[in-house]
Amino acid sequence: MVDIIQAKRDGRELTKEQIQFVISGYTAGTIPDYQMSALLMAIYFEDMTPLEIGALTDAMLHSGDVLDLSAIPGIKVDKHSTGGVGDKISIPLAPLVAAAGAKNPMISGRGLGHTGGTLDKLEAIPGFNVDLTEQQFIDQVTTVGTAITSATGNLAPADKKIYALRDVTGTVEAIPLISSSIMSKKLASGTDGLVLDVKTGNGAFMKTEERAAALARALVRIGHLAGIKIIALLTDMDQPLGFTIGNALEIQESIAILQNQGPADVRDLTLTLGSHMLLQANLADDLTGARHILEKHLADGSALAKFKEMITAQGGDAGVVDDPTKLPQAKHTIPVLSTEAGMVTGMATDQLGVASMILGGGRQKKGDAIDPAVGIMLHKKIGDRVANGELLATIYAEEAQRPDVQAMVSEAIHLGPTATVPPLVHQVIE
Question: Which of 181, 189, 275, 338 is catalytic?
Answer without folding.
Answer: 181
